[in-house]
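Hi U.,

Before I forget, here's the chain from the pilot set. I'm dumping it here mostly so it's searchable later in email.
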Amino acid sequence: MIAPFLLIYSSVAASAGDALELTYDAVLKSAVANNPTLLGAQYDVEAARGTLMAARGIFDPAFEATASQNQFTSESTREFGEVLSEFDSASWSTSLNQNLPTGTNINVSWTTTTSRFRYELRNTSYTVEQQEPLFESRMVTSLTQNILEGHRLASNLEGVRSAARGMDIAEASQRRARQQTLADAASAYWSTRTQWKLADIAAAAIDAAIEEQRVVHAKVEQGTLAPVERTRVDAAVVQARRESLRALDAARSAEDALLLMIGQPPGTSILLVSVPSDPATVVIDSTAVETAAIEGNPELHVARIQEHSAEMARLDARHRLLPELNLNASYSLVGYEQSAVAAREELLSGDLPEWRMGATLSMPLLGRADRGQALSRSAEAAKARSERLQLERRIRSEVRAQLRVIEAATVEIQLAAANLELATQTLEAERALTDAGRAIQKDLLESIAAVDDAKTQLERSRGDYQLALIELERLKGTL
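Structure:
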C-alpha cells in the first residue's frame, strides 16, 4: 500500500527540478496572449471598424465617366413620301456626385456629343446630308434637398453614429473579455497555489503520522501502551494518506486548468513562485470603490452604449414620421456648334442657359410602417434604460458584498493564524503530557489533526482573500 503512494510523490519530486517557474504577472500575460475569446473579440473590433468605414462611405464623392457610340438607320412615311433616315453620334461625359450630411445631393456633369445625320426621300431621290459633324457641350449642376426629414443632421448621420456605437460596443466587449480573462487567470493561479500548499500540508501530515506510528508501535511492544493504540495510530496513517491523495488530485486538477488557460500542454510541470499579499490594514472607502466600479465596469459601459444607441434610434424613428419633401433645382449651360472648341466657348459664354426648379412631396396615407417602427424603437429604448439601471444596481450591490467578503477574509486570516498558534501550543502540551504518561494517545492524535486542520484553514483563508481582491478589481474593471 505504501509503494504506490511513494511512487506518486517520487514522480512529483523528480519533475520539480525541471518545473517551469511562473510568476503571477507572467501567468496574466500568457492568459491574455492565448485566450481564444480575446482573439474573437479583436476580430469583432476589426469587423466593427470596417462597418464604420462603410457607413462613412455614403458621404464619399463619386466620380463617373461614360462614353458611347450610337448609330441607327430608320424608315418612315411623311406627308411628302417615304424618308430614309441615318443618324450617327458619339458622346462622352464625366460627373461628380456628392451626398452631404445635411440631406443634400449635389451633382455636376459635363457632356460632349458629336452627331451626323442623312435624310433621303425615296420617291424623289432628294437627299439632305450633314457633311461636318455638329458638337453639343452641356454642363449641368443639380441640387436635391430633403426639406423635412433631411433637415435633422443627427438623423442623416444615424447610420454612421450607429456604426460608431457598434465599434464602441465591440471595444468595450473586448475590454470586458480581457477583464474576465485576467480574473480567471488570477483565480486559477492562486487557487492552484493554495491547492499545492494543501497538498504539501497533507504530505507533511503523512510523515508526522508515520513517525507517530513508529513511536506508538515501539511503546506497544514495550508494554507501555495498550494494543488498541496501535490500531488507532494505524488508522490515523491511513486517513492521512487518504487526505493526501485527495489534496494531490485537487492540486493537479487546478494545475491542469491553469495550464490550459495559459496555453501550455497538460502535464507540464510548473512552479508558482509569487506569494500572496498580506491583508491591507487601511480602511477601504466603500463609497469611493463603488463609484470607481460604476465608472469603470466594462459590462456597465456596454450597457450605457446600448442605452444611448437605443435612444438615438428612437429619436430617428420618431423623426421619420415626417413626410418626405424634396426640393429639386438644376442649372445648365449649353454650347452647340460645328466644332468642339466652338461649342465649349459658347457654353462658357452662357448664351444658352437652362434652369429648372421643383418640389416633390411623398407620404404614406396611413403611415403604419413608420408609426410601428417608432413604437418598436421606443419600447427598445425603455428596455435598454431599464436594463442599464438594473445592472448598475446589481454592480453596486456586488461591490458592497465583495467589500464585506474582503473584510471577512481579513479577519479569517487573523483567526486562522491565531488558531494555528493555539493548536501548535496544544500539541506541544499534549506531547509533554503523553511523554509523562498523563495523557492518552488518542488526545495526542487529535491534537496533531487539529494542527494540520489549522494549517489547512490558514492557507484556504489566504487563498480566499486573494480571490476576493481579484473579484473586486474585476468589478471595478481595473485588472
